[in-house]
Amino acid sequence: MLKQRVFTAVILVALFLWLLLSLSATDFSLVIMLLVMVAGWEWTNLLKLDNVAARTGYLTALFLLLGAAGYSLGLFGEFDFALGQQISLIAVGLWAVIFLWLQGYPSSAILWSPKPVLGLIGLILLVATWVALASILHRDSGRWLLLLAIVIVVLADVGGYIAGRLFGKHKLAPIVSPGKTWEGFIGGMFLQLLLIAGLLWARPEFSPLALSILIIPVALYSVLGDLFESMVKRHSGVKDSSQLLPGHGGVLDRIDGIMAALPLFSLLLAQSSFV
To answer: Residue 156 pLDDT > 90, yes or no?
Structure first.
């Protein structure tokens, strides 16, 4: 299983970097739109939509919303960063509400688990993730900024896994995700400090405060995204969102942290002296 997991990860990283560095911001955004559609299909698994018509209707709604967002943002013309920030702000606010739901689970499930509500949440978060990605990419040095956002999420995940395996004793969210520990959480945050130190070493002109304000909250939100998908999967009685990625589950299982992190990263980027 570990070899399969590593092999899949290497292929995914290589493909991601090749597409990111070889395509224009617009073309890469369109490719990611297809990935978001796959994630939308997996969301219908979490919604338990067994009816083909219901699944088709949900995916059609997602496609139309993505298309409307791309058109409104001016994807093929002058990019509307202000609109992108407004959409990201809505997602960041929704994630704050989700944090409260996590604290109250399983009692809070009555608020978010009905299919119409959970379906709407999925549409908002998926569209906002794509909008945030497109907004980041269309900035100066957008490719490198997007890579930074992805690295933040990966370090939070990897640090959490390693520290959790080595030192984990105290459960972070025992009902939602029994495998996650406070020691793992601290390990993920420690790697963020190393990332900040590395960036300051490479680029001394960067502000330590600006970097910290940009990176630490995004890392925290990535953990929130991971926990939310775990909560939804637990409530739906499924282990993985799908089996599309050998050793990893589905697309949603790989981008859950990114879904929470990118809107906040995009929002903070617009206010940061980092760029």
So the answer is: yes
d(CA 236, CA 75) in angstroms, rounded, equals 36
Give residue 60's region: left, alpha or beta (phi > 0; psi -120 to 50). alpha
Omega within 30 of 0 (cis) for the link into 116: no
Element (H, E) at 173: strand 171-173
- Phi, psi angle pair for 29, to nearest 5°: -60, -40
| Residue whose entry in the numeric block shows the structure tokens 């990201």 | 88
Domain residue ranges in the chain:
2-271
Predicted TM-score of the model (pTM): 0.95
Exposure b/e, 226-261, CB count within 10 A at least 16 = b: bbbbbbbbbbeebeebbebbeebbbbbbbbbbbbbb
Task: Name the token pair of 47.
Answer: 């919604």
Q: For position 1, what pLDDT does the model report?
A: 57
- Type of residue found at 139: R
Tell which residue, 224, 246, 233, 251, has the closest CA to residue 160: 224
Residue 30, pLDDT > 60, answer yes
- Size of the chain, expressed as the number of residues it contains: 275
